[in-house]
Design brief:
With 122 residues, the protein is an alpha+beta fold. The chain has two domains: 2-55; 65-121, no CATH class. It contains three helices and four strands; from the N terminus they run H-H-E-E-E-E-H. The protein has helices at 2-20, 26-55, 114-121; strands spanning 65-74, 77-84, 87-94, 97-103. Strands 1-2-3-4 form a four-stranded antiparallel sheet, with no helix packed on it. The longest helix is centred in the N-terminal third of the chain and has 30 residues, at 26-55. 2% of the residues are buried.
Length: 122
């Protein structure tokens, strides 16, 4: 990643200094604009790749534990709807503890969201 960034910076420096001596025509102005757009898109993709690698975006739904939904009730209290090996559970997460509130049967559809599962229990 660092190579591409250094290459981009070097390309910008040399292309602007070389083109400063030339007179600008419509074609060269359009070409400069396209190169600048490609460079900006490249920088955005590099930053996205670094953020994805650093924060693990896209890995939330892989594996056997899937967090279906989170609801923050109070500052340190959260309800979590979690699926583990096909079994859906409602967990209460508080300060320093996790409690199993509801253990749903295995035949619960995967399309159910928090409101429908909570309505089934009432």
């Amino acid at each position: 990643m660092r190579r591409y960034f250094i290459f981009t910076i070097g390309f910008l420096f040399f292309s602007t200094s070389a083109q400063a001596a030339e007179s600008l025509t419509m074609g060269s102005g359009l070409l400069r604009m396209l190169w600048a757009l490609l460079i900006v898109i490249g920088v955005i993709l590099i930053i996205f790749g670094l953020v994805k690698k650093r924060f693990g975006l896209g890995r939330m739904q892989q594996g056997t534990i899937k967090v279906l939904e989170l609801r923050h009730i109070m500052p340190k209290t959260t309800l979590a709807l979690v699926e583990v090996r096909g079994k859906v559970m409602l967990l209460g997460i508080g300060a320093g503890q996790i409690n199993l509130l509801v253990d749903y049967p295995e035949n619960t559809s995967k399309e159910s969201d928090f409101e429908t599962l909570l309505a089934e229990q009432q």
